[in-house]
Amino acid sequence: MTSAIGSANALTTWYSLAKTSEDTRVAAFVKNNRQVAAATTQFESAAGRLKSTDELFSPQNYRLLKYVLTAYGLESEISNVGKLKQVVNSDLTDTNSLANRMSDPRFLKLAQTLNFKGGGLANIQNASIQAGITARYNQAAYEIDLGDRNPAVRQAQYFKNNIGAIGDIYDVLGDNTLRAVVSTTGNIPLEVAVQDLGTQAQVFSRQFDVSKAKDATYVNRFIQRFLANADLKANDSGAADPTVQLLQAAASGTGFDLSAVSNINLLI
Length: 268
Hints:
Blueprint: H1 4-7, H2 10-17, H3 22-31, H4 34-49, H5 62-71, H6 81-88, H7 98-101, H8 105-114, H9 116-119, H10 127-149, H11 151-162, H12 169-173, H13 176-186, H14 197-207, H15 216-234, H16 242-251
């Protein structure tokens, strides 16, 4: 990919990216990124050298831990070693264990993959499970690259990939990225966050219909509105920009479709 994505509006960038499948884009990104390949080689080697589960959290295995956390979108948690140890050592059969009580589902997914309580190092040193972690890491690295070029596009990609797995609106509230996308789309003020969860759930439910979380058409249109609003906030001089005028139509929820910008070509 070229740096052209960095200067483009998020919505037109999203349309351009949609011309190829996400799997194709991720594969091309990984193929052309030596750092990703090197990180995976180091992950496999370091994981194989672990002698105890505690070693994952030792300073000499910082890069190994970062790789695993990045695969689950938890790289920002790398300094919270105590919490991470509790999560991955949780008894997954105990509903009161920390992994099962975390509002952010990514912690539970991490615990289910490593499952140190149930199997020690067996999972992290299993070739098949390592392959699954690597696939997640490649996806995460691709999304991080998107975010470096346009944060809203990264959020949109994450939303598309994860919204179908939610059970209720509280899952949206518990995921920082899903929450941010719905907030931006619905222009929900930051002050709502200080309200009790029940009130927050009502506000967010008015903006996103959880019953349609698996409806691809609904989700795609919702993402278009999100990207339009994100662009509006990033463009103070939007009134003079014909592209932003299209975005304004999108943000109003008046049936805007990406075909409206089909004549805008980007180099991706």
